[in-house]
Specification:
The protein is an alpha/beta fold and 300 residues long. The chain has helices at residues 8-17, 56-61, 63-78, 84-91, 95-101, 118-129, 173-181, 224-233, 252-258, 285-293, and strands spanning 20-25, 107-112, 145-147, 150-157, 163-165, 210-214, 236-240, 262-267, 279-282. The strands form 2 sheets. It has a 6-stranded parallel β-sheet, with helices on both faces. The protein has a 3-stranded antiparallel β-sheet with strand order 5-4-6, covered by helices on one side.
Length: 300
Amino acid sequence: MSGPSADVQEFRKVLQASQHIVVVAGAGLSAASGIPTFRDGGGLWRSLDVTSLATPEAFGANPSLVWQFYHYRRNKALSAIPNNAHKLLAKMSIPNFLKTIAPRAESYHVVTQNIDRLSVKALELLSNNLGNKKLYADRPRPESVLEMHGRLFDVKCTSCDWCAEDRSNPLCPALGQADVHLEGYHDAGSKSNDIPEADLPRCPQCGALARPGVVWFFEEPFYMDYIDTLILQADLCIIVGTSLTVQPAGSYMAEVQDNGGTAVIFNMDSTELDEEADFLFRGPCEVELLRVLGVDPDSI
């Protein structure tokens, strides 16, 4: 195998011939919006292996620490805005726009591992900017984004079936006080700041302890049957800003290729699967996606 191509014109030919396009997005998509990549955790939590915080066992052992980490992530996401990569991927959900770069396209979906809601926010902003355009083919499709790892602002009960989106900041007074406790400190992971369980977010329905409404390691992602169907029919898989190490998303590129499709990676950093890709474009995805797809930043 000669390795992946970086030929923009050859990729555009593939894109123009593609009928079923699936984008698989990861943390690198949101990096330019100020969202720390998950495995980096963010400067304030740099001393901890944050992957060890994202498990049911970690929450059971230390819900205070896990809630403080997710409170930090919520704060970051609340102040973030979609970058040009989010905006372009959102605009590609408009059928008539998609036809300008992929004239044979019949379906288009973004399967995101991100929980920051920025892909959905980009769709909402685009829809608002379009005003009263009523033709379906001229409007973005909200159903094109599948948040397989859940939503950061969802809070759910550990006992009953209650779950709701809550953008309150802080979710409870104790988490706000934790910010004060860490003010001027540079490494939250090395400073003890225990919050009594009774003071953590609670379920308004039954009073039990609540948890972040996201998918943790060893839990089943959302929409799995539907995503499997999309991957099975996809003839183009566009990887954007993901290390391809977390399953099941890490296997989607190979599955599309095994079914005769093409895979392209847009990433700032190298991955273990780079050499398996058909095309590889290295650099910030908010720059490279637009360059390679031939889209003017001012048009999105």
